[in-house]
Amino acid sequence: MRKEVKIGLAGIGALLVLFFGINYLKGVNMLKPESYYYVEFTDINGLANSSPVFANGLKVGLVRDIQYNYQKPGHVVVGIDMDEKMRIPKGSYADLVTEMLGTVKINLVLDFNSTTYYAAGDTIQGRANPGIMGVAEKELLPKVEQMMPKLDSILSSLNQLLADPALKNTLHNAEQLTASLNATSKQLNTLMSKDVPALTGNITTITEDLKQISGNLKNIDYASTFIKVDSTLQNVRLLTDKLNRKDNSLGLLLNDSSLYNNLSATAGNAASLLEDLQAHPKRYVHFSLFGKKDK
User: Which residues cross the membrane (predicted)?
Assistant: First the structure.
């Protein structure tokens, strides 16, 4: 062989390997016989070539071609390659499902009650199944958009609150209050562990003393005591009556005014006598070195 022919054959082989390799990476088995069907959608929602086709959760085909149906405006025709052994009952339809990560796939919903089947090249009715992302886009996003102004207002208020010095002071006061409560708790613990048992012991002692006093009081003869007290009060009453009467010496002493007057006069005379004695002592005391009396 000539050198140029060898290079040409090597290039053709490389192209074939590249072609089969790319299709293999796409999941297309070129050596496996397949059936070709068409699915008609009004919105493919980002469906791309080589997207998988599932039936009952198993991959049974691939999207090979996507064309806009110019004869029916608003419709898109998707060509899918299916396993040759895969038979699609009439009445089945294809769901266009949007997954969580945004990828789109075709899911065949088969009608197992049908006894007739689509032939290769037939068109299958397609339906849009928004899935979780579609529901989120249609229902959640409008609500989120409505909530955004409120969230913005809440965040603004929160920023103002966090920037307010009063919050810092409040947290500082709360810290001080916590420290005070901790100290109070320790003091209360000390009180409960030391002082309260001692106080309880003192109360117990006082209770025992009161119990003993109560027992002693119980043994007292109250009737006899009250009789004696009554007798004493009667004697005091008799003594008071005698002191108020003038038929006895003590009564006369307390009630006779003449005795008081005599005593008062005697005291006055005694005072005058003492004054005179101090003024003229020679009248009452006579003293001489030679034994002679003065006249």
Answer: 7-25
Q: How many domains does the chain have?
A: 3
pLDDT of residue 174: 87
Domain-located, residue 47: yes
In this structure, the answer to whether residues 87 and 120 fall within a common structural domain is yes
pTM of the model: 0.39
Confidence of residue 32 (pLDDT cuts 50, 70, 90): very low
**From start to end of the chain, where are the E strands?**
34-41, 52-55, 58-69, 75-83, 93-98, 104-109, 123-129
**Average pLDDT score, the chain:** 78
Q: Which residues are within 8 A (CB) of 190 and not within 5 positions of it... i.e. 6 or more apart?
A: none
Instruction: Name the pLDDT band for 133 (thresholds 50, 70, 90).
Output: low
User: Is 166 inside any structural domain?
Assistant: no
Number of H helices, E strands in the chain: 8, 7
Residue 276 lies in a domain: no
Contact 75, 40 (CB under 8 A): yes
Residue 241 pLDDT: 78
Domain that holds residue 59: 32-129
